[in-house]
Amino acid sequence: MTQVSIVIVAAGRGSRAGEGLPKQYRKLGGKMVLTRTIESFLAIDPTANIICVIHPDDMALYKAATEGLELQEQVLGGETRQDSVRNGLSGIEHLNPDYVLVHDAARPFVTEEVYRGVMEALESGADGVVPAVPVTDTLKFVENDTIKQTVSREHLYAVQTPQGFPFQPLIAAHEATIGQELTDDAAVVEAAGGTIVISAGNSRNVKLTTPDDFKKAEQQIMMALGDIRTGGGYDVHRFEDGDHVWLCGVKLPFTKSLKGHSDADVGLHALTDAILAALCDGDIGTHFPPSDNQWRGAPSDVFLTFARDRVLARGGQIGHVGVCLICEKPKIGPHKDAMRDRVAELLEIPASRVSVQATTTEKLGFTGREEGIAAQATATVRLPLGDT
Question: Where is this region: 2-C-methyl-D-erythritol 2,4-cyclodiphosphate synthase (predicted)?
């Protein structure tokens, strides 16, 4: 059986993307870019061995991005991209695969067609394969902001990754070109005397570099998440003796507490049920039965992040959530912004997509008699088309 290893180069700083993070660790549709890149390859070829080359300062980010994924142990990058790839190759030398694919971490949309095209060309005997797309824009040669010449597009291609090579020849090519400044692995093999062929690239397989790239990528994900669902949740907790209440993840000093098996955060309970309802995935009692003592006194953020992760596991995204707290006391208004921020933090979405409201029942009913608090919640979830 043909053995394939994939080296994902994730040691760059990527500062042009903004937000103060290397671009491979920025969130894209609720997941880090690197996570999406790895998951794309695992979906295409679950038998491939994947190793990531990372910056030594990014270990915590890398661990967060790869939690639960089966990968080879990461290696650290070098001073240049060539150094980093060479380190990655050394990290899989014990596997001695037949072929190795080298891929940019910031290309999360690699498709099976691109992958198969590279593999087919490799198996036909190529020294190296680069996915590429024809250049379609008109090209100009410019000096000092002045166009000097229109350049013919004929025979011009924009290259992408993953770039594929027989494993041992790629190692030899890297060793033979140490000290040369080469921009990709195809150039390394060419400089060592090899011949590179192209396979079909894909316009979706873009490298994320600028803030505008990320905006377009978010739109691309949104277009794929066409199954839009709305779920609702409702919860009630009565008051008991105490000195605080938990509401929407915020601890409020009060003359009473809410009674419940967990911390009785009525807002987060209703919101958890709303998300699970959108997924048609039971309710909070299904997954966290009150008969199970491990949840006694548990913080309700455990339940909400569980529901969030159920959405992400299905390739989905939480688009908007809203909570309405129904009580006479305590006063919710002074704490709304803190509640929105906490819910946004737990769901890993912008606070601009979180609504927290409050109302009374004009002294009517159990909330009007100040016997407890009720909460209603809604959640909008986007799932991939065809999700069942």
Answer: 229-388
- What's the one-letter identity of residue 249? G
Q: Do 353 and 319 touch, CB atoms closer than 8 A? A: yes
- Position 264: which residue type? A
pLDDT at 20: 74
Annotated binding site: 235-237, 261-262, 269, 283-285, 359-362, 366, 369
Cβ pair 34, 16 in contact under 8 A? no
User: Per residue in 265-278, is it b (16+ CB within 10 Å) or e — as a string?
Assistant: bbbbbbbbbbbbbb
Q: How distant, in Å, are the alpha carbons of 61, 189, 223, 278, 387 from that of 34?
A: 10, 26, 20, 27, 23
Domain residue limits, the chain? 4-224, 227-383
Binding residues for a divalent metal cation: 235, 237, 269
**DSSP code, position 208:** P
Q: Using one digit for the tens of pLDDT, what is the confidence trace for 93-125?
A: 999 999 999 999 999 999 999 999 999 999 999
For domain 227-383, the question of CATH label 3.30.450.40 is answered with no
CATH topology for the 4-224 domain = Spore Coat Polysaccharide Biosynthesis Protein SpsA; Chain A (3.90.550)
DSSP symbols for 247-312: ETTEEEE-SEEE--SS---HHHHHHHHHHHHHHT---HHHHS-TT-GGGTT--THHHHHHHHHHHH
> What's this model's pTM, rounded to 2 decimal places?
0.74
